[in-house]
Cytochrome B561
Amino acid sequence: MFVLGWYMHELPKGGPKVSSFDLFDLGLFTFESSKEMSARSFYFLLHKSIGVTIFFLVLFRIYWRLTHKPPKMLTSMSAFEIKLATAAHHALYLLMFLIPLSGIIMSIGSKYGIHWFGIPFLPGIDNETLRDLFKEFHEIFGQILLLFFILHFAGALKHALVNKDGVLKRMWFHK
């Protein structure tokens, strides 16, 4: 979604209308649309559709997390590492919830609303103030999530390569 978000904002407004879209112009996958639209419109619609899907998957993940106990932290981890890991996980969950929510509210604030893979989902109310405010939230939360993801990845590498304490095994599907 980060790549898609950055890519779609670089596309010019009012480009030529077509019904075939080569994903990121890489020649790997082509989308066919039943109606002609600009590339910018297509990618915004795709981003919104995937974002709504992610929002509901995150809600399910949060439900799962609340109803299933996670594995215990390793005894080799210090109290500071346990607190840091817990705080990072809470931040990741919060951001995974806030990013699509802010995107949904931003889209409702626009005049276009949200179509989920072509199906009208939520109408827009054309409120520029609401849209602009939640656009800022959406972008800031996205950047913070990217930072937390990098830190989380670095922590996992540290445990795998330096500590060699089995944290990656704990994170995976092993019991």
